[in-house]
Specification:
about 150 residues, mainly alpha, about 60% helix
């Protein structure tokens, strides 16, 4: 019988130590992705990898114009330099594994303030010429939040 990650976690992680075990597992996965074979790191940045825990409406994302060709990390992680990218990937990845494993995922999922800054900075990084003509006091996804994820609230 094939079990999903969620099934294994549900059957093995119970009690007060579950969050610690999940954090340790997440950290181990991130270290393996960072320092393991290059293909593992590459896969860890793919929508297929992210979608294993981040249950989203992938079909709607895949049909969303030019963004359908982008990997999740292009928008959701810092991309101006590799050091902040790797650090954020490890921190956010571990946090997300813990939330998923412990069943503490909010519904709906809302982007944190630091996450909003990262996404906005990446909008500007890719669409800088267009964004320079827009009011600097607003974030791009205030109007365009559904341009990549249907049902996104913020």
């Amino acid at each position: 019988m094939l079990w999903s990650v969620r099934t294994v976690v549900d059957r093995t992680l119970h009690g007060p130590r579950s969050v610690g075990v999940a954090a340790l597992a997440g950290a181990a996965l991130m270290l393996a992705a960072l320092f393991g074979p290059p293909k593992l790191f590459e896969y860890s940045e793919s929508p297929g990898f992210c979608g294993r825990c981040h249950e989203m409406e992938r079909e709607s994302w895949e049909r969303m114009g030019s963004h359908r060709r982008e990997r999740c990390v292009e928008c959701h992680l810092p991309n101006r330099h590799w050091i902040p990218h790797i650090l954020a990937k490890g921190i956010h990845g571990t946090r997300d594994v813990v939330a998923y494993a412990s069943g503490r995922i909010p519904d709906p999922i809302r982007l944190s303030e630091p996450g909003q800054r990262i996404v906005h900075d990446n909008c500007v990084r890719c669409h800088g010429a267009m964004v320079s003509r827009i009011d600097a006091g607003r974030r791009c996804f205030r109007c365009h939040r559904r341009s990549t994820h249907r049902g996104a609230t913020r």
